[in-house]
Design a protein that fits this description.
2 strands, 2 helices, transmembrane helix, transmembrane, membrane, AtpZ/AtpI family protein, elongated, single chain
């Protein structure tokens, strides 16, 4: 069980915050940043290539490449993995190795 710590909020000092309480929010912001950043950067690269070569479709390819790359980076950093909300590990809910189906 995570140990409670004092809240970072000013005011009432009896508020407690669990360790990692804002981890989902931070991961969501990171995923959003990777994807939007990838779209912006690769769209600008595509726009520059479109300007140089006189085409109009490379900017769209760049946006698609940026979104895909941003999702790939967030997935490789472990930000899109499924997390348990109970705080326990996924191994706690599996069957026991000793054959006793009621043991946990």
């Amino acid at each position: 069980m995570p140990t409670p710590r004092k809240s970072r909020h000013s005011g009432d000092s009896t508020e407690v915050e669990r360790d990692g309480g804002d981890g989902g929010y931070n991961a969501g912001i990171a995923v959003f940043s990777y994807i939007i950043g990838g779209i912006i950067v690769w769209s600008l690269i595509g726009w520059g290539l479109d300007y140089l070569w006189g085409t109009r479709w490379i900017v769209l390819l760049g946006a698609l490449l940026g979104a895909t790359g941003g999702f790939y980076l967030s997935h490789m950093h472990g930000l899109t993995s499924q997390r348990t909300s109970s705080g326990g590990s996924a191994a706690d809910s599996g069957p026991s190795d000793d054959g006793d189906s009621n043991a946990k």
